[in-house]
Every structure is written in C-alpha cells, then in structure tokens.
Fold these 2 entries.
Entry 1:
Amino acid sequence: MQNPRLVFGFVVALYLLVFPYHPGLRSPNELCRLWQTRALVDHGKISINDTIAEYGMVGDLSVVNGVLYPSKAPLLSFVAAPVYAVMKLFGPVTDVTQVYWSRLFLLILPTLAMLVFLRRFLLVYLSPLIADTVIATYALGTMAFAYSQLFFSHQLTAVLLFMAFYAAWRTLSQQWKQWGWAVSGAFSGAVVATEYTGALGVVCLAIYAAYAVVTATQGTGQQKAMALAKVGGLVLLGSAPFLGGLMAYHQSAFGHPLTSGYKFLNDPGYQEWHVGGFLGIRYPDPSAFALSFFSPLRGLFTLSPFLLLAFGGLRKLFREQRALFVFTVTLLLGNAYFTSSFTYSSWGWTTGPRHLTPLMPFLLLPVGLALQWLLEAKTFDGRVGFGIAAGLCVSSVLVDGALAFVNYIPDSHSTALFGLAVPLFRAGYLPPTVLMFLKAPNGFAGTLAILLLVGAAAIIGLRLAVGRAREVAVAAALVVLVHVGLLAGLTKHHDADLQNVEFLKKVWMTPPSS
C-alpha cells in the first residue's frame, strides 16, 4: 500500500473520465471565452458579435459602442484557438465537443503535469508517504478537481502561479541558472493575462522573491539592491510578452491599455459588484469571510477540511524555511482579505469559493509538515491526532470530489452534497463522463466514476492507517462520520433545495434514460 502508483492512477482516471457539463445551462463563464475563440479563428476578430449571431447569446460580456467582448482576461480564449482550429479540420464543432477538448488540453492535462512538479517540490521537505498523500488529496479533495473540469480561469491560474513559484524556488536554490527568473516572470505574466485577480498571487510571489534574494545576498545594502534589481529586470523581461499583449488587447477592445472589460459590463446587475475599490475589492466584510471559509454550501474548510492542517504546519515552516513561511502567510492573508472584501454573492453556481483556487497548492507544504509531525509523534495523543488528520484527508476527497461531479451548484442551496449531489445520484442522474462519446450506458459510466472516487479515498486512508496503531484507523473513521454527518444535518431539504434538484434534472446532459 506504500506504492503511490495506484492512487495516482485513480487520480488520472478520474480527471480524464468525468465530464460535468450541461448545455442547457449555457454556462456564461465558459461560453463567453469559447465564443471569443471561435471569433478569433472564424472571423479574425476579438469581438464576438458575429459569433453570437451564429451560435446564440451568452453571458459575462462587456459592451463598447455596441461591440461585445468577454469581460474576462483574454489568455484562455486565445490559447483555446489552436484547439478549436484543429477540431474544425475534422468536421462541425458543437459547444459540447469544444468544451471537452478545450478543458482537456488547457486545464486537465496542465493540472496533471503540475502535480509532477508539485511532488518534486514537496519531496524536498516531506517523506514520500506524506508528499503523495497531500498531492492526491489536493487533486481530488479540493477545488483543483472542480476547476480543472470547468473552462474557468481559476485552475489554470493556480497552475501558472505555482510554476512561476517553482521557477523562482529552483533559481533561489541555485539548481537553475539566472535565466530561471525570466521563466518565473513569463509564468507570472501569463497569470495576469489569464485572470486579473491572479495579480494578487504575483505580488505575493514578488514579496517572497525579494525577501529571499535580499536575505541570501552577502554584502552591503548597495550590493543587495543591485542583486534585487537584476532579478527584477529578468522577471520583467520574461513577463513582457504577456503583459504587453494584455495591454494591447485592452487598448484595442476598451480604449486604454490599463482598462479591463469590467468597466463596460453588459449586465447592469453585475456592474455594482465591481464599483468602488480595485475591481470591486473594498473593505473586509465579516460575513463574506465567514461564508468563504465556513459556509455549509461552499466554505473552503467545510468542503476541504484537511486544509485546516496548514495552520498546524506554519510554525514548523517558520522555524525551518523562513522565506517560504513569509510567502505562504502573505498569500494566505492576501487571499483572506480578497475573499472577505469582494462581493460574495457574485461567485454564483460554483463549487467552493472559486477565487481561492490559486491559493490551494501553496497550503500543501504546511499541511504536509503537520501530517509528518503527527506521524512521527510516539504518544497516544499523537497517534489520535494523526488519525484525525488522515480522516480529514479521506473526507475531503469524498465530499469535494463528489461535488466536482456536479460542479454547477445554485446559490440558494443549503448544502451541496446531501442537498444536491446525493439526491441527483439516487435518482439516476449520475456524473456525465467521456464514455458517453462511445455510447456507453451512463448508468455504468457514472457508477464507475463514483466507485473510482470512493476507491481513491479508501487508498489514501489505507496508506496512512495500515501498519499503525488501531487508534489511527478509529480516529480517521470517526472524523469522516462527523464531517459527513454535519453536512447531512445542515441540509434543510427546503423548497429551494427541491426546486434546484428538479431544475438540474431537466438540463442534465446524461439523464437516466441515456
């Protein structure tokens, strides 16, 4: 059970198998980008008026003098253009096939590739058992799974931001030459061109790099400043193509290199969310903070409770890796401020607090340090603590993984697991999978997806519990029961829950009869 290949095989199988998409929802966040992709290839334009005339209206738009554009940062639309162009060579393209292949090449495969680099990073500080556990739990038990399965920008931003960090980390450790800073800059520029709010993570990365460079440079203040200036120049050089392209896009579409589409939102109802502050980021709201982290419907720690272990690992990170501690805390505080200051109600129909997705990979090191400390503890309390931590990992996979099978979760629901996912699955509305393209019965394919998820959770639990004291397994099982039981108890089954279930049945891509 110590061989990680089995659990990672389950991870890859699930990423490639499930396909949560329902054409009847006309998902605005996805289709506005993909309509721009079609406009680029079919008409050579960044505006999407012609595409809308051909294929129908979508949401999440900006309008300038009657000309329509997606309100999103543009990189995801542009990198999807080659995928769409190749698809056209093989015949007509539907929104279903375009969504699938675009997700596969731009979200799913990059996420799986990132796991390789994430493992290399974690293995420097953690044992293979702990590193593999937190990576598998991250892959299936956080929003990484959900947003690799949606053509949203959040998971690609997480991938790009981690790779920007990885390049900087490798360069700081002198495993890469100085050109590594230009690589980090290129990934950082791509982050901002993919998601405007990703700039927050880039700023935190800059603080980490500056702190690490200054503390590692021997000599006078002038020498430290020169070293920092050299690094900054290389980073700017690497980021220039992406930032320059983004500003050129803004100039062409919105009349100024620093003006984004949020200034020209087509739907008046969305405009108030972005008024005041920076892109709508104002002063913190305690309610938004509490809901983002602890809401029964989409709270970060409610759905992925194993991430709470990060707070236990920060002390050890402070003692052993001061620069990484500064980076992690800065990133955590910055994201906490952001999620508390932006309009919570604007996140609608999503799994978890989606804007926190880029934060997830950077919590894994302190999570792993906490797990490793508990594993090495020889006392009864330490063994129970390790069992609790193991249970949090298993429960995160079962809960957040199941929600990724649905992935379109109405705001008015009480809880997503027992209020939405379980009722749908019980009624035969099982997770859509790519096997539908092969005309496989969805009863078989959807059940296979559920069994793979349960199997992955079981493997994670067994790898942590087998060969250890009985109290580890008992504590882990109790934690899973308590977490799942709390979600069941918080489910209201009120009118909104029932109506939302019936609505999703009407638009479900693979109903029981398929």
Note: The mean pLDDT is 92.
Entry 2:
Amino acid sequence: MSLPSDLSTDQPEAEPASTPAYNQHIVTTAKGGGVLIVGRIFEYGGRLVLAFLLARLLGAEQFGLYTLGLTVATIAATIAIMGMDDGMMRFIAIYARQRDTNRLWGTMIFCLGTTTIMSVLLMVLLFSLAEPLATVIFHNESLTLMLRLTSLLVPFLALSEMLKFAARGFKMMHYNVIAENLVQTPIRIVLLAILGIVGLTPYMAVAVFGLSDICASIVLFYLINKKFSLRRSLRSGQFNARHIFSFSFPLWIADLLSTFRSNIQTVLLGSLSTLTSVGVFTVVGRVNLFGHMSYQSLIASVKPTIAELQATNEWKNLERLYQTTSRWGLTLNIPVFLLIVMYPRQILSIFGDSYESGVTALIVLACAELVNVATGICGSIIDMTGHNRIKLFNSFSIVVISIGTNLLLIPPYGVMGAAVAAFISIALINLMRLIEVWYLYRILPYNREFLKPVLAGLFALAAIWLTSNWLDGQDAIVFMLVQGLVVLSVYLGSIWLLGLSPDDRVIVDRVNRKTTALYTQGRAILKLR
C-alpha cells in the first residue's frame, strides 16, 4: 500500500499481514462482531416484537406520538454526551493495551462525570421547552405531556450509551449483549404485554422504556466493574481534559449531526406530515434494521482495533482489516436484502393493514442499506484514525443533504419521500467517505475476494427466478418458505464453493478447534458419568 508523503515519513515497516499478531486482530474482530451480531439478532428480533406489540396495541397515530417523544429525547441525550462516547472508547482501548490504569480510570471519571452533568441540564431545558416545541414545531399540543415525560429519560439514555462504549473500549462486546438483549428487551416485552391486557397508552410505553434502560445500565455497571474495578479513589485518576476534548468535541458535533440526520425523517414527518406517517416509517425502519445489524456489529467490534493499528503504524494490517471486514459486512447483508425485497408486503402485513402503505419505502431503504455496506467501513477508518475535522465535514454535509431532500420530498410523497431522501443521503456520504479514505491512505475496501458475495448474490437471484416459475400457483406460505430456503441455500453454498479467503480460514480454523474441544470435553464428561 502506498501512502502520501506526509504519512509515510518515519513510519516503521509494517508487519506482514499473515503474522500471529494480525491473526489475533482478525479473530478478536470476528469474535466481537459475532457476539454482537448474535446480540443484534436478539435485539432486533426483540425490537420487532416490541414494534409489533406497540403497533398493534397503540395504532399508527399513537405509535407515532410515542416515537416522536423518544426521538426528541434521543437527540437531547446525544447533545449531552458531547462526543465522549467515541472518545472514551478510543482512550480506554489505548490505555488498556498500555496497562495505564490511572489514565484509564481518569478518562472514565471525566467522560462519565461530564456527560452526567450535561444530561441533567438538558433534561431541565427540554422539560421547560416542551410546550413551545409541541405547539410551534409539531403543531400538536397533545405532544407536550409526552415531551415532558421523555425529558426525564435523558440522563439515563446518556449514561447507558456511555457505558456501552466503555464496554466496547475494553473489547467486552458481550457485556452489551447481556445488558440489552438479556435484560432490557425482555423486561420491555413482558411489561408491555402485561399492560396491553389492561390498556396500553403511549405514556405507559415510555415509562416501560425508561425502566428497562435503567435496569440495563445497572447490569453494565456491574459487568464493567468485574473487568476493571470501579472501587478506586477519584484522586488516583489521571486525565488530560484538553486532550480528551480536542478529540471528542469534533466527534460530538459530528455525532450530533449524525443523530439529528438519522432522526430527521421522524422529526420532519411529524412536522410536515402526520403522526400516522411517523408510525408507518418507524415500522419500516425497524424491519430494515435487520439489514443493518451485521454492519453495525462489525463496526462496533473493529473500531478499537483500528485505533490500535493506527497508533502502532501498522498500515498494511489496517488495509487488510479494512478489506476483510467490509467484505464480511456485504456478505452478511445480501441475503437479508434479498428476503426483504422478495416479501415486503408480507412482512409489513404482520403489523397491521395500516402499515402496508410503506411497502415501496421498505424496498428503497433496503437498497440504501445495501449501498451502505457495499462501500465498506470507510466511516470507521476516518473516525478512529483521528481525522475529526473530516468526520465533522461529512456529518455536516449529510445533514444538509438530508434536510434538503426531506424538505423537498416529504410534503408531496410522505413516507416514500423520506425513504428516497435517506437513499440519496446515504449514497452520497458513503461515496465521499470512500474517496476520503483513498486520498488519505491510498486504500480501498475492494479486492478480488469482494466479488465472491456479489457472485453468490447473483446466483441467488437466478434461484429466485427459477423457483418463482416452478412454484407458480402454490400456496403463498409454501411459496415463501420454499423460495426463502432455496435462496439462502444457494447463496451460502455459492460462498463456500467460491472459496474462503486466508482471513476466513483463520476464523473457520478457530471455530473448528473450539468445536472439537467442546466435543471432546462433552464426551469425557459423559464417560465419567
């Protein structure tokens, strides 16, 4: 890999990509990503169940009211975090590797303390401004009570997010899985189901959301304390506030813009369209999350490793990691994309007839997610290699693009307009990031291995065409099950026949060894009995 002259000066020669150190990075990334993907399956499965319960019990309009309130609280929590989540994760990863416990502890104290103070201030401000926000921006006075209720959640939302990133900094990805998927989601499902019997309201649903978030935060505190004792003197912590702020502040603005951008459809739909549109678009977005879960999990897992490789100038390993994880993201997304595009109406009909108006929007969002993963983890490379100004520029650009396209498309087209606006903004920002990473490091996420999931996807498309002709006239449920199984089988079989890359084989070998060891242990236990 060639580097610009300003980057190549005084850099040690990179280790060969096949070294045990690099293999360990790949294993760590795959393990963390795998844990998070499993967690995301349960999380998004839980979200889908929650969306089903809320959509059925509340209806599209009341579900829109609930979503709008939580969206405003989420934006407020992001403001309170001040970029400390990414900053804390980065410095925890670096100091943990250096075994510098005092600076690690100081970083946690400073980041968590600053976020707590800011979140309380934002809670008070949002509570005070609830009425003008409801009447002036959303033109709905009934939203006042909802905004006041959700404002009370802001400190808890900010704290739980910070704890998640602290766990990622320690590379303890399974902590988030435990807190979110084994604690938070089951509590919400059970309580919503119980309240549904007596008559669920959107205000009850918000209270359940807050209670489950508090429980998840308590679990995260306990688990992080097992990894790194939090029973330490505050005076023993060492931190450089200026250093942390210089890294976190640009990320704060960028994350704020990103959060605002990701919620802009909800806000603008609530302002320019109807609460029913908010409810429909929320359900469509929840379904599309299944296409995003593998990509998001890989990014969460790989970010600390990117920071480590950049800190030690292992540029060739960084390039290979970039290509491998980007290909993994695409490989995992394609079958989900195919299933969503094949059965959008059937999927949305689960939530009720009023949500089937979002069929076309669901297909557009699935295409947007395919573009997102096909451009690789370029955004994470920029984030974790210290190019905060570029991230800030990107975030500002995508917000401007998103606001412009949504203002143009939502009034005439509603939910469909919001979906098209999302596709345009995602495609443009990812193209920008791809070019930026190439300019900075002369690396791309593409190599010959990247063609394998693309070819497998084309083979699966051919299977769709063949099975559609063969199953013509069959029962709808039989048609869906058979065609879905055939498509997945053809796709996975094609991936295997096209051959595994060296990095893939490292992971397969590790899984085989683990499986063999467990099998041997199981046989030994049975013999003893």
Note: The chain has one domain: 26-446.
